[in-house]
């Protein structure tokens, strides 16, 4: 369980997050949706202990989120993360040395699934392959929480599809809490259980994907359009 | 965990290290070629001294290369190791690279001395003893200087990045860190000039009986290297070490608490 209690993040006068309170339940898959600059990455980095709130508290389980929280959760960052001069197996080796929950067995499975050559250098990988390698590194960890910040950024539809299939195959549903930020709503929909819409640093809407689909017969995209249309009108 | 960090940092700098070691050999070969062309082999020594002095900036440069590799996204901060351990790994690998290069330079210096000053004129070798003490002093001085700049560099780097979250200060971060360095250095320099401080420093000294080494005139060239015994103040060394340790700890603390991504 991840608890955000009255979180505000200020950069000078600008508020990246403004009094956000939300609880991510254990074992569910969440999608944080929203336009650029809505605070999606800030909220992820805060849960990963890379950004500290100006006000409020972020708790992962019973622990306050700080740098040490990395041992309790796996974080896929939208930038950085990979060393261009490393080979894929060196990246795997490094992650294995840093996280006691890193499963080499799972990494081997994912290498095959993601069709990656362990001897290839990161700098020689395409964007899609780099995206898959990042996912491999994160999914190989047996943690309770997975934070995936823009896992589809700059990737073509084929790669996005592989990543979604990877998530479906390798996420431990019911045990792992997975939080994904993205713009690619349609692709991620089959994986999501809950969707949160973030705008201008505040949660604008929240829904259960299954309920929306069954009760209203809407996809998330349709729900988003109808919700914001109604709000704009009112 | 530290082992993994060390391995990672070594992989990050391995290519740079090999290029640098090749450069050392090339610079030496250029010096040796130049000296041989003029038929005066001692002309290789300025090249060697240049290489020695280069090591003062080598340690901070190696550390800077390693830090630069982490700057994009600063993802390295998301890990199980704390700031101090992350920086310690960088320091240890930078130190290893510098020591390797210093060792190669020492070997080249020794070879050059043996070529340039044959045994009868090379009293230390003639006595059957290696110029160990002088070597330790030279290498030690270079290493200490390099450590000083590196630890200051680490601290200022961490301080620089900790200012990122203040948009007002972001554009003038360079000015702030330069001003900070100059102010601290000036204050310390002034304090050490005080009579009271000097008399405190003189309370703990050790007598160092340095062996006297002298290379006499040889082959129309004249260079001498004489070292005599003297007193060394211990307090400035102890306080200097504490000062550098504080800088290191402060850099680690900043990395953990103040640097945000």
UniProtKB/TrEMBL annotation, chain A:
<dbReference type="InterPro" id="IPR003439">
    <property type="entry name" value="ABC_transporter-like_ATP-bd"/>
</dbReference>
<keyword id="KW-0547">Nucleotide-binding</keyword>
<dbReference type="Pfam" id="PF00005">
    <property type="entry name" value="ABC_tran"/>
</dbReference>
<dbReference type="GO" id="GO:0016887">
    <property type="term" value="F:ATP hydrolysis activity"/>
</dbReference>
<dbReference type="GO" id="GO:0005524">
    <property type="term" value="F:ATP binding"/>
</dbReference>
<feature type="domain" description="ABC transporter">
    <location>
        <begin position="2"/>
        <end position="225"/>
    </location>
</feature>
<dbReference type="InterPro" id="IPR027417">
    <property type="entry name" value="P-loop_NTPase"/>
</dbReference>
<dbReference type="InterPro" id="IPR003593">
    <property type="entry name" value="AAA+_ATPase"/>
</dbReference>
<keyword id="KW-0067">ATP-binding</keyword>
<protein>
    <submittedName>
        <fullName>Spermidine/putrescine ABC transporter ATP-binding protein</fullName>
    </submittedName>
</protein>
From TrEMBL, chain B:
<keyword id="KW-0472">Membrane</keyword>
<feature type="transmembrane region" description="Helical">
    <location>
        <begin position="43"/>
        <end position="67"/>
    </location>
</feature>
<feature type="transmembrane region" description="Helical">
    <location>
        <begin position="12"/>
        <end position="37"/>
    </location>
</feature>
<keyword id="KW-0812">Transmembrane</keyword>
<feature type="transmembrane region" description="Helical">
    <location>
        <begin position="234"/>
        <end position="255"/>
    </location>
</feature>
<feature type="transmembrane region" description="Helical">
    <location>
        <begin position="172"/>
        <end position="191"/>
    </location>
</feature>
<protein>
    <submittedName>
        <fullName>Uncharacterized protein</fullName>
    </submittedName>
</protein>
<feature type="transmembrane region" description="Helical">
    <location>
        <begin position="137"/>
        <end position="160"/>
    </location>
</feature>
<keyword id="KW-1133">Transmembrane helix</keyword>
<feature type="transmembrane region" description="Helical">
    <location>
        <begin position="93"/>
        <end position="117"/>
    </location>
</feature>
